[in-house]
Amino acid sequence: MIAAEHDNLIRTLNVDEHRTVIHYAPWVQTFKGASHLLEMIDAIKDGLGDSWTRSDLTKYYARADVASEQKFVAAMVWGHEAAAEGRRDNRGPWKVATMFKDAVMLKETLRGMDVASDLGIEAAYKRFKDIPRCGTSFLTKHLYFLGKADGGHRYPLIFDNRVAAGLLKLQVTNPLVFDMVDVGVARTPRAYLAYLRLARQVADRAQCEMDQVEYFLFTH
Fold first, then answer.
1. How confident is the model at residue 176 (pLDDT cuts 50, 70, 90)?
2. Is the confidence at residue 197, as pLDDT, over 80?
3. Which residues pair with 21 in a beta bridge?
4. Band of pLDDT at residue 58, cut at 50, 70 and 90
5. Within 10 Å of residue 192's Cβ, how many Cβ atoms?
6. Minimal CA–CA distance to 102: which of 36, 28, 38?
7. What residues pair up with 64 in beta bridges, in sequence order?
8. Three-state SS for 3?
9. CA distance 110 to 124
């Protein structure tokens, strides 16, 4: 599905080449009535500053003194800000506030996740089923940073619509088809694990990091 002819390119990709500029004002404005969210936004700004790379956020996730829900909010802020060659998702603050509508449930959802195995990843994925506005594109961002922060070479990856489109582009001979259809991820644990298995195979073959495979799909 990802031909070996791409391996050299994948190996050269720098997942930190794009530094995301964070616009905090809309988050502060939306969270005015939720002191717990405002406090987390302030702490995130203090800890990460006004622009981050993936590695910056990975190091933040590795900190034992930062609560799981604060790490989650940081990943959601990063995910809703401008992607490489993309635009900000202005609905981000509202969507995250909706995710925290039942803050206790979300806190319990995030507690004690283990993403070191496929069974753990599947269980973690399923935990989000009752969290509103937290679909595959965003829950997998949290799983990615959670796994990446553990320091291993086998970890979850971001799986969003742009990555899904990248997968399809490798199979379609006429790119004009993308002017006619919208491409999205299959929102099931089974599809997500199949994607991770593919990425592992390519990473092993190309002798690269798994997130370089994901970044290749995202940017090409």
1. confident
2. yes
3. 51
4. very high
5. 23
6. 36
7. none
8. coil
9. 8
Does 3 have pLDDT greater than 90?
Answer: no
Quote the pTM value: 0.94
d(CA 87, CA 205): 33
- Residue 167 clears pLDDT 90, i.e. is over it: no
3-state SS class at 51: strand
Mean of the pLDDT values across residues 210-216?
Answer: 96
Both tokens of residue 124? 């973690």
138 vs 217: CA distance, rounded Å: 17
Average pLDDT, the chain: 92
Q: What integer pLDDT is reported at residue 209 of this predicted model?
A: 97
Query: Taking Cα atoms as reference points, which of 166, 154, 161, 107 lies closest to residue 138?
Result: 161
* Listed residue (5, 10, 54) closest to 219, CA to CA: 10
Per-residue burial over 89-115, b if 16 or more Cβ lie within 10 Å, else e, is eeebbebbbebbeeeeebeebbeebeb
User: Each residue of 180-189: b (16+ CB within 10 Å) or e?
Assistant: eeebebeeeb
If we measure between CA atoms, which residue out of 148, 106, 160 comes closest to residue 128?
Answer: 106
Helix (H, G, I), strand (E, B) or coil at 30: helix
Instruction: Check residue 165 and report its DSSP letter.
Output: H
- CB neighbour class for 117 (10 Å; exposed up to 12, middle 13-18, buried from 19): exposed
Q: 């009535």: which residue's tokens?
A: 33
Q: For position 134, what pLDDT does the model report?
A: 96
The H or E element that residue 20 is part of is strand 20-21
